[in-house]
Amino acid sequence: MGFDEEFDALRRGLLAHCYRMLGSHHDAEDVVQEVYLRARKGLAAFEGRSSVKTWLYRIATNASLTALNHGSRRVIPSGLGAPSDDPDTHDVEQLTTPWLEPLPDAALARAGVSDPVHVVLEQESVRLAFVAALQHLAPRQRAVLLLHEVSAWKVQEIAEALEISVPAVKSLLQRARSRLEEVRPAPADPPASAEVERELLDRWIRAFETTDIAAIEKLVHDDFAIEATGHRTWFRGIAVCLPFVERQLLQSPGELRLRATRANGQPAAASYRRDASGHYRATHLVVLTVVGDRIARSTNFPGADHVVAAGLPAVLPG
């Protein structure tokens, strides 16, 4: 197998790894391309003392660390402060901070195929809650944790890849685990089945397209949360979320169209709004977190680019 074939076989895993590190699908794509160019250039000097996979992940990790040196951590609103208790607020503060981005499942599929067992593990490690929690770790803590816990590297391998001592790796790993426990939501019910997720997503889409707030109420947990990147304000609890959805998000019947997709290994929907010409233009991607048999969270990512990255059109005919 030639280098290009080996790289293509590993591209999907590299993309997922860089996304976990960076919290940005677009930045991860750029780093994976950089990894390819650097590896291609350094191929003659590769001595084969490790596998090509280990070598490429080493390059990817260090390239991600370099990228993180030039930017702030990516966040979602719930990581910035307490929720609002006013569903009628118009003080939805906009921020220019770097925001966490979704990773469409279609983007991973374009990057390559994977065996079913690996796909399950991959999806668990790119779920929004986990990736959002990772952003609270210092870059080297993040790198050490991911290489050890997700990629199953030995401490010695990590030390060699990052050019630090074994005790330093152990210290970083301990601090990373401790910090992750502080910021990561506690495990709730077991993950929902694919069938349950599909049914909930279909019902969510119908409810929004028909502006049926009663149907939405039946789909969500009592402590349901809703947030959108770009704004500090977010909401939790149906007493606040449902009035907010009804008064500020729902449109007249026929104004919205939604299309089912998946992102971060979770059910998702692309949202379209009808314009003056009668066409429907993509506005944002909604990623749903399902716990048990209901929806626990809706995380909205404004921007048609997220919809297109999910393999869906930017415009639907009227």
TrEMBL record:
InterPro entries: NTF2-like_dom_sf, RNA_pol_sigma-70-like, RNA_pol_sigma-70_dom, RNA_pol_sigma-G_actinobac, RNA_pol_sigma70_r2, RNA_pol_sigma70_r4_t2, RNA_pol_sigma_r2, RNA_pol_sigma_r3/r4-like. SUPFAM superfamilies: NTF2-like, Sigma2 domain of RNA polymerase sigma factors, Sigma3 and sigma4 domains of RNA polymerase sigma factors. One of its GO terms (biological process) is DNA-templated transcription initiation. Keywords: Sigma factor, Transcription, Transcription regulation. The keyword Transcription applies. Residues 128-180 form the RNA polymerase sigma factor 70 region 4 type domain. GO terms for molecular function: DNA binding; sigma factor activity. Residues 8-73 form the RNA polymerase sigma-70 region domain. Pfam families: Sigma70_r2, Sigma70_r4_2, SnoaL_2. Gene3D superfamilies: 1.10.1740.10, 3.10.450.50, Winged helix-like DNA-binding domain superfamily/Winged helix DNA-binding domain (1.10.10.10). Residues 202-297 form the SnoaL-like domain. Belongs to the sigma-70 factor family. ECF subfamily. Interacts transiently with the RNA polymerase catalytic core formed by RpoA, RpoB, RpoC and RpoZ (2 alpha, 1 beta, 1 beta' and 1 omega subunit) to form the RNA polymerase holoenzyme that can initiate transcription. This is Sigma-70 family RNA polymerase sigma factor.
